[in-house]
Amino acid sequence: MMNEKANESGQNVNNNFENKERDTFGSRLGIIAAAAGSAIGLGNIWKFPYITGVNGGAAFIIIYLLCIAVIGLPVMLAEFIIGRRSQKNAVGAFKELAPGTPWFLVGIMGAASAFMILAYYGVVAGWTLEYIVKAISGAFSGMGPQEIENTFAGFISNPWRPIIWQVIFMAITALIVISGIKDGIEKYSKILMPMLLGIILILCARSLTLPGGLRGVEFLFNPDFSEVTAQGVLIALGHAFFSLSLGMGTMLTYGSYIKKRESLGKIATQVTISDTLIALLAGLAIFPAVFAFNIEPDSGPGLVFVTLPNVFNKMPGGSIFAALFFLLLAIAALTSAMSILEVVVSYTVEELKMSRRTATVLVAAIITLIGIPSSLAMGPWAGFKIGNLNFFDFLDWTTASILMPLGGLLITAFIGWHLGKKRVQEELSAEGTIKVNYIGLFMFVCKFIAPIAIAAVFLYGILK
Ligand code: PHE
Q1: 305/290 Cα distance (integer angstroms)
Q2: Of 318, 268, 267, 311, whose CA–CA distance to 293 is shortest?
């Protein structure tokens, strides 16, 4: 049955053969853990709370949820479809499904984004490791707010300390990715994601039971739409991309490891819901504590590294909760970093015919090297600017504001205008075994809604 279908589509015949050896996720739970692990990251726990704080709270969250449902979910599904249909990496997928066309450039752009994102993501992830150690050793206790701020500024501008942590973080990421999908990424995601959930629930319970904490809940869930700005809407949509790991081939690559019998619609929905719930739980862990201790909710990117140590300091047993919190951040960052590295590794292994081990070591080493100037941009090399951005901000801005939205736009357009309804139907219905009643709507979103909405974010990112 499966082979017949493959024959019908004409292109997959040889491929099925070659791909006998291709690694896949072993179980549904494993797929969800890995894909949710990719989505849930620094974006949820570090970035989502502070952009919510800066953009006025509940009303911003409602708009973010709309963006996730209307744009994010369809883009994720689109990536899963392209990946699983082609059984290839981000570049090979487009070569397979649209041979002889320039569509493969979308994959090249994704691989380039992966290099750039992980270069700075690894640096921030390294900070979380330093902060776990600091918290465990009780370094913050007795420090005043100013001292805590100086400690953070001093640490990130130090010429070598953050780099050592970045190297350690990248090495751990590479060690997991070397072992492949089932025995590496899936296995560790299945251990790390439940840990993450456990820790975040403990932190929520602590935060919500602090006297005065309920004001934080109100800030999160009682909307005031007069606070919404056009800019806030666009930030919300951009963050939906970053948070769901979309537009640069991560979900496409993971999709290629999903077995043909699985329902892609179900998996995309479950991953999207998990990512959103964890972002909300992160808000519930952070804002009640912030309000309980009368700290401003809109303190920006320093919220978790500067504001929270103050909060933990004032709590009984604070250093334990601080250590748990930074461990949570590190775990979230690790499962995301694995997925970013996998985009480039799968491309290098399949298209450049390198062994997985060599590819992983080489790619991780290059990314770490690019990360060094992005770490130094916080200190000794702060004066080196591209446009008006330092190297760290340049990597963040170019990927989040340009490459990811552009990638998402092209991916949905590819589904809507190139792949076509028949092949999409085959993938979504798991080759006719599952009933799907949303194909018309999905194709409409891919053809029109998603590209137009994304174009708006994209233009905003450039014109800003
Ligand atoms: N989604 C991750 C986060 O929220 C970041 C990420 C972006 C991961 C792109 C993979 C690809 O932190």
Answers
A1: 13
A2: 311
Give the model's pLDDT for residue 458. 67
User: Distance between CA 456 and CA 232 in Å, rounded?
Assistant: 13
Residues of the chain with pLDDT under 70: 1-20, 457-458, 461-462, 464
* Ligand 1 atom index nearest CA of 113: 9
| Closest atom of ligand 1 relative to the 336 alpha carbon | 8
38 touches ligand 1 (CB under 6 Å) = yes
Q: Which pLDDT score is estimated for 12? A: 42
pLDDT at position 18 is 44
**Cα end-to-end span (Å), the chain:** 52
Q: How far apart are CA 188 and CA 174, in angstroms?
A: 12
Of 96, 80, 108, 95, the C-alpha closest to 446 is 80
For residue 328, give every residue at least 6 positions away whose Cβ sits within 8 Å of its Cβ, in sequence order, or none.
45, 196, 199, 200, 203
Class of residue 222 by CB neighbours under 10 A (exposed 0-12, middle 13-18, buried 19+)? exposed
Q: Ligand 1 within 6 A of 373 CB?
A: no
**What's the pLDDT at 295?**
80
Closest atom of ligand 1 relative to the 275 alpha carbon: 4
243 C-alpha to ligand 1 centroid (Å): 5
CA 42 / ligand 1 centre spacing (Å): 7
- pLDDT of 372-387, one tens digit each? 999 999 999 999 999 9
What amino acid is encoded at 311 in this protein?
Answer: V
- Alpha-carbon distance of 80 to 241, in angstroms, equals 15
Residue 173 beta carbon below 6 angstroms from any ligand 1 atom: no
Which of 336, 403, 404 for a ligand 1 pocket mutation test, highest count of atoms within 8 Å of Cβ?
336
Instruction: Give the torsion sign (CA, 4, 180, 364, 401).
Output: positive
CA–CA separation, 248 vs 254, rounded Å?
Answer: 12
Other beta carbons within 10 Å of 133: 12
* pLDDT for position 127: 96
Nearest to 51 by CA among 235, 295, 215, 233: 235
Q: How many A from CA of 215 to the centre of ligand 1?
A: 30
CB of 399 closer than 6 A to ligand 1? Answer: no
Residue ID of nearest Cα to ligand 1 atom 11: 245
Using a 6 Å cutoff on CB, does residue 336 contact ligand 1? yes
How many Å separate Cα 396 from the centre of its chain?
13
Q: What's residue 5's pLDDT? A: 40
Beta strand residue intervals within 374-447, DSSP E: 385-386, 389-390
